[in-house]
Records
---
Amino acid sequence: MRPTLDEVILYSVPGCEMCRQAREYLLQRRVRFREINVLVHPKAVLEFVSLCCPVFPIIVVGDKFLVGFSRAQLLRLLRVSRR
C-alpha cells in the first residue's frame, strides 16, 4: 500500500484526540486525504509501527510521514510534497 507522491493518508484510531485534530486540520485546509482506521485495518500500519513507536496519528504524505500531530510540521510536509 505505497502512497503516490502527492497522496495523503491519515492512519488513525477512534477516540484519539490528536487524530481528530489532524483530521480537522486537513479538512480545514481542503487537503484531499484517505483515512485508515487501524483498528479496522491493522495490517495497513504494521510497517510504520515496526519502524517507530506505536503513536497515532501517523500521517503519510507521498514518501514521507509524520508521527503525532503538529500543525507546523504537517504544513511543512504538505508544502514539500507539492513542489
---
Amino acid sequence: MLFPLALGDSPPERSQAITIYTGWERHALVGSDVRLSCSFFSWRWISDDVTFSWTYRPDGSRDSISIFHYTGGEAYVDNKGPFRDRLEFVGNPGRRDGSILIKNLDFSDNGTFTCDAKNPPDIVGRPSSVRLLVFEKLPIQAGVITGAIIGVVLGLLVLIVVIYYLMRFLVARRVFSLNVRSVPILGGLCQGLEQRPEPIPGTDTCVAKLT
C-alpha cells in the first residue's frame, strides 16, 4: 500500500550511479611503502556523508577482510588486521580521493585490495580492485621492453634515412664531376672551348660543359 507524503515532506532524492577507479596492478619492493589510489565520479557535489571502504583479500584466499573505513570526516583502521600499524589514510575526500598508504611492505601483503565509495544519495556503484605484488627486486615491465624495441626501430629508420641521403649526395657529386670533361688542344686551338692552363707547359687542355 502506498502512503501519501505528509505536508512539508520532500520526496527522496533520486540516486544515480557512482563510478569508482583504482589502478589495475601495483608493483613494490619489500620494505617500501606503496600508495593505493581510489577515486570516484559522481554527478553530484561532494556530500558531507561521503564514505570510503577498503577490503583486502590475500593471495590464495577466498575471504576478504575489512581494513579501512572513512565516514563522517573520520578515518578508521582495523586494529586487529595485518595492516593495523602500517596503514595511513592519504586521500582527500573533498577531491573524491580515498587513497591509502601501506607501509613497510612484506611478501605476505601480496593480494587484492578493493575500494568502495558512496556519495549519498549516489550509493550504487561497482567497487574497484587493485592487485599488489611485492618483489625483492622489481621486474622489467612490459612497457619498458616495448619502449626499448620502439627506440631501436626508430634508430634504424633514422640510420636508413641518413644513408639514403648520403648516397644521393655522393651520386649527385659524381654526376657533377662527369658533367665537365677535358679534351686535348688540337693544333694549338681550343676551337671555341675554354682553354685551361696546366702546371706543365704544353699540356694545356680545353674544358667543355656537357648539356
